[in-house]
């Protein structure tokens, strides 16, 4: 397998899915070793830093990419296997933006309240212990939390010539903010444009389900990806597979629509995996799925539906792609 | 501890929270051994049974109760510890009601589509193996799934003289349909009326998160409860504690409001457990919580927020009530 | 026609639909001359009055009633024609409750913001001019606004033994808070219990569409109603007819579900009035309806769908009941 | 005033806001005489035409434009005064797309229902009578409805380099689908990019509020616009002014968020027009506004808040721009 490396310069960062020239052309089967900047462009570095003073809310979630995958055409299935995610800094950061987050009035859930206080928490990383440290700002409370690296954004160029902010999510993937995008996961994305033009970014050193305050423990990340391409078979929405689960991802507002998208997609996936009718698959889903929230804060909320493989007979999705990726990754 | 038993006759079933005379007066500290009928009043028994022919949708989720707890006054905290849930029949049942469920038009998400097909699945119980068997109706696919008994409904009489259908949920608890209400869990409910007047029902032999098709593997249940009372301290919404988690429960529509209710309640709970300010608790929640959906099908959707105790320093909620309940239950 | 009068004493006020004994039994065809207390029980009388100090949020919207209509059985259609609504005081009042209203965090759209300021506006009534006067609290701005009396709540006892707060709305009617409930309107409500047990209250001297801050210009009202009964034909949701419009009313959350309820009901109504198929009625509705919001603040939001009669050929609903009511009212 | 004319060729049609080179550079003060193609690119012409066979759902709502306005910079206010809208064909058309519309499952409100029937209605235009004719497909019912021409889409290039489908709406305007965009209306849009790059399209010969089935009486349109520019003062969301109303426009999902956006914007507008505090403006809005829905079917739902000028003392918005536009239009 060919290995390519890419660390974007400041000028190479992009804040959209679609709309940017590719930084590299790669072949299916390539190993990518990347560096991703944190959601804030590295500008928040101290608990006294205020996001409203230092950040432009149009330029959040800088992307590493886009990458042009040779041979990728609309209707194909892009395969991104996350081999490794390693924090690239010895600190992460979380903050409360004015009018952004799940438990505040926002630009959409528009109320007449003044903004909640703007605060910034710095999380030192202890690589040896595998932890980040939460420290309360207003008291002495501290606790070490396990590192659980994930990528917030994984997406391709959208359909129909759209260019979407790296805060948005949809059929093209994007700002999914689900902890399922961790090392060992294989992500399937429908291709909408020639070359797919995918990018990744928004590394989280850890995140609760829902990403309630609007930001995770954000941090620059070293990312190792295996990139592959399946001709045809594009899923309508992002799907994820890991050793333990099949996962469908829905992004929309209101939250029940995000859930409905992921659920109906999983009904179809189960029907296909086990040769079930729609109603039989609906029933099987109803008694077996897990439904953790991903985020309820982004431009588009994301909900996921997970089926534990352990509950069901062995089945093979996407011609065994995930297993093939795991084997290839083990050989790196 | 005093032990009381109660198996309702057909005439004693009730379909509301509030509005019914108590079937029994009990003292705090009582062990209750109960029998609960299934959601359908036991009327669906074969895959050829059609709910629209056999059921009246105003009479779903029959309750066992209500029980009058001596000394319970508005503002107090009712404690219900689920000691044991054992399937009372050797089969469970699930079905698709016309215009009920998560992936169909409903009486609220009203569309012009005809109803989805009305189907009924019977799940044989294998007690020795600890499984129920899913069998597809339209093919030969079968799979044994682990028994995971839980209660769909746990509630008290609502505030302000309201009487709510046993399909509804709210500050009084009710049709929460969360798998968290399993053996080993302690449920805290605010008392709204003298005697609390709580009831339980709607046993599920297992349920996926979201209860997508509208019904779980429904089944009659033998229920052992420990009932206790804390003076004052009524939580605004139902809370649950088990050995591993603190859990806040929100019920509302749209789904993001159910989530917001559970999240803001957990922010306050964390603030209280660890002496944190609101913003510090909001941040801690954001990086540690789990947010599985309970149901997206009932009259009121339910979302839960869970904090894994393993992530945080030891802390004691409700004066150690949960641990006390566990010890008492172990002695039964 | 028989005329009955009723002015509730303080002890006779009720705050629920269902759950109260009737204050009077009346025959279909009766003229009722009623007095309704304002939403706050008359307790807010000055701009220095604070609702949180003076009100119990479980006891808002006191009802005048319930009235038992002789012969009314489940499945029948209760007809309430609003003959006259006259302000019963020379002042109205509006206020901002903490955590209540459309542009604030609430107990459901739960956020971490402190409450918006609690303010009270008194509106003097000028009967001769037909106006109420808005006066800003923080500046000298004043403006006279036209009196536009309406009833916020019109409802019957709910189905299945439920008792609902007079803040709630649903198939039983209730806290609809739509300006369509003005003099000259005929309201059709499905009967769920013997005697229908309807009540009215929550008079508004005027209200914007949406009732944004949570309260209208609230005021005690003298109400003249014509009560009638149609055997059978119960509409699934409240309907209103006036000289100019057919109106369907939907109450639910999220707001799109309230809208969907009213829209699908109107599709069926149009199909029935003009002998159209569902798809033809859907198309006709799409090009002719008006869709003003009623309220986006109550326990259940309410949206209405209006069809201007002037756009369509003459048609007769409910056997000409509205016209009959208008003629009868003219003769009073 | 300079007058410019533009009729796009087939190759000049665009289906996005942003992302296309300007077709013309114009100076503020220009009169534009334009031709807009219908939402379906003119491809649906008979009741036997099926949209799924003839249309690509990525290419709906072709735009006429974009136009580069000289001197327009981010933060400025683009003024588009609709002088005249005249149907350009003697027929309009409406249809039901599979999985598109308000009373059907969709790609977002994803259910397991098969699509509703796909039907197409042709509306002959009678210019002399000023009507379009609705004819039922499944019966003989026909009715002439008044012509009420409006533009469904009016938008500029979005912020931050986004390119949005002409089905989307947001701070950039876009697919608002509100009947308020009729002749005599002045639309104020914030400028996000140099030159503003606005376009218009999606003419409707008439539309009900909500655009329930997903499409209005769609038709090609001759459009006369007056274009002007105000330096600075960009509104956060589209605003509209006509002789009778001030109008704020909110686009989002769920529908209550669209409403909240328009309402909070109007609170601020009223505060500014009359020197009121936020709470006083909130109160005034609550008793005076009208809240008709625009559409509940697009990618983003749109709600509007209207304040009748007749209710309030005379006030001048945007330095009298609307009156100036009306006078200039009268002189054409």
From TrEMBL, chains A, B, C, D:
UniProt GO molecular function: hydrolase activity, acting on carbon-nitrogen (but not peptide) bonds, in linear amides
InterPro entries associated with the record: FmdA_AmdA (IPR004304)
Pfam families the record matches: FmdA_AmdA
Source taxon at top rank: Bacteria
Protein name: Acetamidase
């Amino acid at each position: 397998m060919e290995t390519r490396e890419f660390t974007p310069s400041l000028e190479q960062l992009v804040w959209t899915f679609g709309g940017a020239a590719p930084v590299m052309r790669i072949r299916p089967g390539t190993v990518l070793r990347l560096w991703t900047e944190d959601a804030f462009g590295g500008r928040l570095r101290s608990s006294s830093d205020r996001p409203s003073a230092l950040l432009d809310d149009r330029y959040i979630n800088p992307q590493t990419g886009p990458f042009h995958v040779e041979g990728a055409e609309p209707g194909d299935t892009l395969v991104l296997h996350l081999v490794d995610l390693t924090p690239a800094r010895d600190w992460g950061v979380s903050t409360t933006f004015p009018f952004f987050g799940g438990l505040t009035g926002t630009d959409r859930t528009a109320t007449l309240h003044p903004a909640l206080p703007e605060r910034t928490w710095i999380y030192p990383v202890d690589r040896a212990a595998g932890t980040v440290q939460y420290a309360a700002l207003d008291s002495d409370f501290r606790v070490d939390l396990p590192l659980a690296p994930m990528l917030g954004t994984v997406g391709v160029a959208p359909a129909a010539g759209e260019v979407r902010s790296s805060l948005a999510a949809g059929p093209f993937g994007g700002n999914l903010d689900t902890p399922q995008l961790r090392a060992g996961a294989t992500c399937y994305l429908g291709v909408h444009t020639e070359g797919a033009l995918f990018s990744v970014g928004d590394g989280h050193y850890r995140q609760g389900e829902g990403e309630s305050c609007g930001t995770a423990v954000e941090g620059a990340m070293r990312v190792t990806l295996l990139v592959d391409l399946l001709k045809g078979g594009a899923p309508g929405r992002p799907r994820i597979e890991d050793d333990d689960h099949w996962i469908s991802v829905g992004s929309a507002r209101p939250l029940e629509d995000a859930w409905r998208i992921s659920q109906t997609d999983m009904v179809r996936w189960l029907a296909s995996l086990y040769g079930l009718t729609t109603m039989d698959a609906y029933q099987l889903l109803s008694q077996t799925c897990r439904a953790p929230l991903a985020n309820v804060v982004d431009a588009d909320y994301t909900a996921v539906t997970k089926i534990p493989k352990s509950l069901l007979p062995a089945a093979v999705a996407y011609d065994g792609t995930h297993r093939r990726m795991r084997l290839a990754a083990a050989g790196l």
